[in-house]
Write a structure and sequence with these properties.
Layout: H1 11-14, E1 17-22, H2 32-44, E2 48-52, H3 55-67, E3 71-78, H4 80-89, E4 95-100, H5 106-110, H6 117-126, E5 128-139, E6 152-156, E7 159-162, H7 164-181, H8 196-205, E8 211-216, E9 224-228, E10 230-234, E11 256-261, H9 266-277, E12 288-293, E13 295-299, E14 305-308, E15 311-315, E16 318-331
Parallel strand pairs: 1-2, 1-3, 3-4, 4-16
Antiparallel strand pairs: 5-6, 5-16, 7-10, 7-14, 8-9, 8-13, 10-11, 11-12, 13-16, 14-15
Helix pairs in contact: 2-6, 7-8
């Protein structure tokens, strides 16, 4: 009697393809050398690797290979903006990881991924997966700096903010893109020093206009409206150089943490920053509100800028909503 035997390979043996997506403009210097080393390390381990700089090609290949079950991971070489771009452009469930090459690298620091190609190659080989929430931002101003105008929506992974710091971010990126268009060799790369001039400009020019924040809480209850001058919505409890503005934020709790300040001067900004650095004491100030929610609407009569994961997004009004378990991430 002939017995037909079928050999079914374990799922991880099928996932032999790795795509490395490099953002040539990320961080302080070109990250190409790190990307090439990661590619070399992975090939040493027997993986089939594509190293790509064209985002459209990255997205097309990643979506096809994820659909066929042959994608081990899509590895972005860049910062928080790089990770958000990959999540926005790929199918839900696509496994993504990061080789830190941006400026702040908040997501990479949160999951201790680091910037060492050999270490990330080992992480990719082990393939430990975590799913966590994202936020979705819907803009209606038609002033989005990353599109051709009109309404749009975009996922963010770390945070969104409106007000003073978003004004600084807009200034940094305007200067960055101008230098890039002019052909400066290192003009597209930024560091913390790139923020000095925009910070000084915002210190003298930003007026801290009023922002109305409508919060729909996670638990059943009526929406509340809070008038403030500076608004942050966090998915992950990291900001800037690691400032704990939202000490209780968790990326997998189905909600976002609002941190709202009503102070209207630069002095207040310094106070908030200093107290946040000291065991998050800012949360005890009467001019600070910390509250969780699942949906938010931010409006202002003035042109108040906002930023998403360190990239300028446009001006208010803005609607924000938590998206549970949207991100599939490969962690340490």
């Amino acid at each position: 009697m002939n017995v037909r035997r079928e050999c079914v390979l374990p799922p991880l043996l099928l996932m032999n393809n790795v795509i490395i997506s490099i953002n040539p403009k990320a961080g302080r210097t070109s990250p190409m050398q790190k990307a090439e080393e990661l590619c070399f390390r992975l090939r040493e381990k027997g993986f089939t690797v594509d190293l790509l700089t064209d985002l459209d090609e990255v997205v097309e290949k990643a979506n096809v290979r994820f659909a066929t079950g042959d994608l081990r991971v899509l590895a972005g070489v860049g910062g928080d903006g790089t990770a958000a771009t990959l999540v926005n452009r790929t199918a839900p469930g696509t496994p993504i990881t990061l080789l830190a090459a941006g400026t702040a690298n908040l997501l990479s620091k949160h999951y201790r991924l680091g910037s060492n190609p050999k270490r990330l190659a080992d992480i990719i080989e082990r393939r430990k997966i975590k799913t966590f929430d994202a936020g979705i931002a819907r803009c209606f101003s038609g002033s989005d700096t990353n599109s051709n105008g009109g309404s749009y929506e975009r996922l963010f992974l770390v945070m969104v903010s409106c007000g003073f710091d978003a004004d600084v971010v807009s200034g940094v990126h305007r200067h960055r893109e101008e230098r890039y268009r002019q052909g400066h060799k290192k003009g597209a790369h930024i560091s913390y020093f790139s923020y000095i001039k925009p910070v000084l400009h915002s210190l003298t020019g930003y007026k801290f206009p009023n922002i109305n924040v409508e919060i729909i809480p996670k638990e059943a209850g009526a929406a509340v409206v809070v008038p403030v001058r500076w608004a942050f919505l966090f998915n992950i409890n990291r900001y800037g150089w690691g400032l704990p503005l939202a000490p209780f934020a968790k990326e997998d709790d189905g909600s976002l943490d609002a941190v709202l300040f009503s102070g209207r001067t630069v002095f207040h900004a310094f106070v908030y920053t200093a107290l946040a650095q000291c065991f998050s004491l800012h949360r005890y100030l009467p001019s600070a509100v910390l509250q969780q929610g699942v949906k938010f609407r931010l409006t202002s009569e003035a042109d108040v800028p906002f930023q998403l994961d360190g990239d300028p997004g446009g001006c208010l009004p803005l609607e924000i909503e938590a998206v549970p378990n949207r991100v599939t991430f490969l962690i340490r």
